[in-house]
Amino acid sequence: MASTVDTPASRPEKQYECAARRFLYIWEGPLRIIHWVNFFSIIILSVTGYFIHDPFMSSAQHPYIMGNVRYVHYLFGIIFSVNLLFRIYGFLVGNYFASWRGIPNPFNAKDRKNFWAFIRFYTFTGKETPHLLGHNPVAFCAYTLLFALFILQMLSGFALWAQNDPGSSLYAVTGWIFGLVSNQWVRWFHFLVMFLIGGFVINHIYSVVLFDFKSKSGEVSSIFSGWKPDRRD
Amino acid sequence: MSAFNELLATHGVSRRDFLKYCSTIGAMLALPSTMIPKIAEAIEQDNRPPVIWLEFQDCAGDSEGLLRASRPGVAELVLDHISLDYHETIMAAAGHQAEASKNATVEKYKGQYICIVEGSIPTGAQGAYCTIGGHSAEDILKKVGGDAAVVIAVGSCSAFGGLPAAYPNPTGAKAVRDLLPNKTVINLPGCPMNVDNLTGTIVHYLTFGSAPAMDRFNRPKFAYGKRIHDNCERRSHFDAGQYVENWGDYGHQQGWCLYKMGCKGPETFHNCPTLRWNEGLSWPVMAGHGCAGCSEPGFWDTMMPMYRRLPNVPGFGVEASALNIGTAIVGASAAIFATHGAVTVARNWKNVASAKADLREEIKEHSDDVE
Lengths: 233, 371
Prior knowledge:
Chain A is mainly α. Chain A contains 8 helices and 2 strands; from the N terminus they run E-H-H-H-H-H-H-H-H-E.
């Protein structure tokens, strides 16, 4: 029986060499919850938002379908926005990897070196597979852009919603947008950003899986468990 | 008072009709019924301000709207009664006589008259695109509008530049508010404006001596405070998911929502659904055509294509909708990362092969040990 199960524990005198020196708790609970709330919010907001743009389903079996879909869209718009506020709070007070302290510094030679190492890896021009415990500097740039889009999406969404009552306090807060851009272009932008986020999602999933394979650092499982290996190399 | 009653009589309007009209206006302006006598008094008074109607780059559609004011006959009377001293299209005088009449009013009632402007003001080519009596539209507006008690911009052209200001705006057309930044300008956009909103605005001014509460674009809130969509009689079909899919289809015959036919009701602030047009007879959506969004700033540039929900993407040709561009973005992202993945797999092949060999070696060694 023992011969069929091959584990390092079964033969401590000759272990496989594990790349991980030890495991570190990188992504803390709140951060992982925020990630998954984002995940579900984006999916639900995209589907309901597309439906609002082009109601593709018949009303026959669903009386009041547009009313319900809009309700769900607004509800998840609020959940998504509150989640975004939590993330901003986390950016201020979270651990090193979640907060502003982990931002790569372009004036720091080591951070610059890391950045170019990742650029070389992505463009197949380097032999090394770089590895960092937190966000890699190239991904950090992508996330910065993504969160800028999130904030614009939140603002434009609430502004469009507030138009149903120009006397409301929500409109008082967001109505200035329509002094700058016409509401049709705000709507257009709100729709187009959905596709930009869609393009990012493909990039995100691909890169995470890529690094999971190449750097053997548990990228995929870390967003469920929070743990990542502290590698020897 | 009796003089006014005579005027009513000559127009075949009874005192009762006049008071009914005052109630209607009061309701439109959302005033309590106790204000109705005040409205009647304001309309009847003898020191009503004269009105100068200026026309620039326009189609006279708002003048048409004014001439057809017929609900309930009294509206026309009110507009007559406020002594329309200058209106090129409908005044009897012409040429020097007309100009003299205008100048006399401007001099005599400086700071007291109401200036109504129809049409946009071209500022290109030193104003050569529109001159009247040897003066450019811009000069006339600055002089007549500048000395007015209040300026009312009727129609989308004078309120927001309208058609003349649409891209590429060859005449450098501007809105009244752009040229009179320090003046109270009440915008009554629409193509054309609804004359009931004009009489309402004037009556409000006569009653209170000030402009009605206005929104961010200087539109009176009583007329532009709600979206068409939110007061639309077809709104229940929108919420229920019942849409016209093609002109003349079953839904169109049933009067379902025109959302998928590009109706701009959800983007447009106006009181068309409640006030309607032509004596309250009908309005575009009631007649089976979507709202064109004519009372919104820059509507020619932002509300087109008329039968689509969203504007086309600029710089990508005529038919590039946000959906096409968005699909292309997602497709490009998928293609880029699929290619990257394929290259990675190909480059990794050797590593995987050697890793497998290593593992086989390990397992073999281990089984040997156990045996």
